[in-house]
């Protein structure tokens, strides 16, 4: 089962302790084969909308900073419970904030 974990941006700059703890966590998940991809996201981005044959592209940002997605991790685990445990461990490292977890369907 694959899960996409989305980290909402929080605006606070990470300190050295956070970098070290997150680095160790990412290293562990990579070595175990659980972590498929991770990265930060550009807060600006763009939006594409379609209506019939018309496409509209609008430059961002679009949401309030507290709602913007700042980064993601794509993991492959055996169960929803395992995905939730990884999200718990992540939240414990980074502290207060919000993480969205979605199962990814398809090949």
From TrEMBL:
Transmembrane segments: none annotated. This is YCII-related domain-containing protein. Pfam families: YCII. It comes from Actinoplanes lutulentus. Belongs to the YciI family. SUPFAM superfamilies: Dimeric alpha+beta barrel (SSF54909). It comes from the Bacteria. Residues 1-89 form the YCII-related domain.
